[in-house]
Amino acid sequence: MMIKKMVWSLLVLTLSACTTMSDSKKNTLSSDQKFDKFEDVFLDEFWSLAPGWGTYVGYYKYDDQLPIPNEAQRAKERVFMQRTLAQLDELDQAKLSVENATDYELIKNQLESGLWYLDEFKEYQWNPSQYNVANIFGLILSTEYKPLDERLRTITTRLENVPAYYAAAQRSISKPTMQHTDLAIQQNKGALLVFDELIPGKIEGAGLTPVERQQLNERLMAASAAISSYIAWLEKLQAETSKEQVPDFRIGERLYEQKFKYDIVSNYSAKELYQKAIAEKNSLHERMFKITEELWPKYLASQSMPSDRLVAIKMMIDHLSARHVDRDNFVTEIRRQMPIIQKFMDDNKLLDSDPTRPLVVREAPEYQRGFAGASVDAPGPYDATANTYYNVTPLDDFTDEQAESYLREYNHWILQVLNIHEATPGHYTQLMHANKSPSKIKSIFGNGAMIEGWAVYSELMMMEAGYGNNEPEMWLMYSKWNLRAVINTILDYQIQVLGMQKNAAINMLMAEGFQEQAEADGKWRRATVSQVQLTSYYNGYAEILAFREELKEKMGNDFDLRTFHNKFLSYGNSPVPVIRKLMLKEWGLALD
Ligand code: ZN
Ligand code: ZN
Question: Which of 10, 271, 447, 503 is close enough to 575 for a disulfide, judged by CB 3.0 to 4.6 Å?
């Protein structure tokens, strides 16, 4: 998981003067020049309206501003988005270069989506966990983009609006769901740490004047009090609301289809993808059973094979999962594997790599260690040449039992698939290619389904090339991993649209997805507080694969896998349907 998308309606929108080009210039500029101008003006205005998001992606100009999420702000957002959409309408997309035409699509989708979130989805009314100020304050504190004293002054200014922020939050919430209220209470309790301990902990060693120090301390106390009273208000609300009155966390078919359209940007409807996923699940089970039959005499000859196919597959997976690295060798093993995986990708000419932009495997820094595991930390759009890190959290904090369960999950085979997904040719390789045609728009409004879909597709790409010597064990474990993305899609749709209950969900994850209880419980919680995001992995994967097969058909012998991969990645983090459209056009192929 790499891209965190902030919700538009939380962002401050203080309108700056609308900048337009003078009429005399307008006529002499080409379409691309006009668009470049529009983009510059748009982005600068955007960050002035969305300072928290700006700070998150490394644009610090408005880092001391905190929006108050009230009706006046939402009205300003609406005006800005409508006005910018009208400006886009004036530009002729067909006359733009491929880069600009793609940016155009992404900006348009972002704005249309923003309006939908505001006026249709109305999450600000029912999701109290939307309101939390801690992250950006924590980011300003821990990122050394300017001296500590200056960052503390920025924090002081930004703290001023915190009480008004939470007051506006309370006024905005009208029908919170139980699940989002729980989450809000839990997360805002965690937020207190930033104001009660982390920021105060830095004041002592800084060079603030006594007056500045006193002002900061006062505002920290006011912020802490505002958060505490928000938590108390939510707890009271929860206690006073009877079960029958609580709105369902499920968003239902109409909103789900719409959210899918804006968040995923797919050629499929949500329902079509759901049906596709069911068929895929069945064919994966089929394949996994064949492998299980093949491997049975090798590993489980002394036992008779159960008649229930899913039970038999589960037994084989359980047996094989005992093969894993020692808990102390987790980081070392990942470091050892990466050059081997990279070499396989290069030797098989799957796509271009860039030795001048290597991946740095490291133990995750303390402040990024929330969860055990591994993830790629790529440079942001305003710092595109920085190192790419593969952060691996050592299992030091685990009990023996937890470590064993974790290592069985990331066993000998699945650990390799994880490295492929996170790093090469997955996220690291994809983002390295995206940075070759740097576009802030594609980086900021990047499509999560394309990014996750690519990582999932890259696993198949390696398997098809014979990674792991085509061992049946490797294929079985790969299939289990792939099944997770497929089942995420089914689960999300069944819960959010078809009303699936907890027991049925857990049962499906364990019996049909071969997951452990703890993983299944966590997935259920995630599926009750988010919608659609769980479908992004499988959707992107299915679309990339379908596009590849379409090209093979259209190009015949001219199709070359490496050329396809390089070209596909040259469009940055754009939605797959957008890449498809532009690529067919560039290659002179029919769109149909
Ligand atoms: Zn991923
Ligand atoms: Zn073990």
Answer: 447
Determine what percent of the chain is predicted with pLDDT higher than 70.
94
Kindly provide the b/e burial profile for residues 241-273, where b requires at least 16 CB atoms within 10 angstroms of the residue's own CB.
eeeeeeeebbbeeebbebbbbbbbbbebebeeb
Hey, what are 280's tokens? 């895929």
Cα 423 from Cα 282, distance rounded (Å): 29
Longest dimension (CA), the chain: 86
What pLDDT, on a 0 to 100 scale, did the predictor assign at position 368? 62
Nearest to 316 by CA among 477, 485, 512: 477
Q: Residue 532 CB: number of other CB atoms within 10 A?
A: 25
- The whole-number pLDDT of residue 17 equals 32
Distance (angstroms) between ligand 1 centre and the Cα of 40 equals 31
**Per-residue pLDDT tens for 448-492?**
999 999 999 999 999 999 999 999 999 999 999 999 999 999 999
| Ligand number, closest to the Cα atom of 423 | 1
Ligand nearest to the CA of 408: 2
Cα–Cα distance, 233 to 251 (Å, whole number): 25
Among the bound ligands, name the one nearest to the CA of residue 407.
2
pTM, two decimal places = 0.90
- Amino acid, single-letter form, for residue 102: T
Establish whether the linkage from the previous residue to 425 is cis, with ω within 30° of 0.
Answer: yes
What's the gap in Å between 418 CA and the centre of ligand 1? 9
- For residues 56 and 17, give the distance between their C-alpha atoms in angstroms, rounded to a whole number: 24
Q: Where are the domains of the chain?
A: 8-249, 259-541
Q: Which two tokens stand for residue 115?
A: 């309006």
Cα 339 to Cα 335, 419, 458, 580: the distances in Å are 8, 11, 16, 32
Q: Are 526 and 496 in contact (CB under 8 A)?
A: no
pLDDT at residue 304 above 90? yes
Query: Rounded to the nearest whole angstrom, what is the distance from the C-alpha of residue 421 to the centroid of ligand 1?
Result: 6
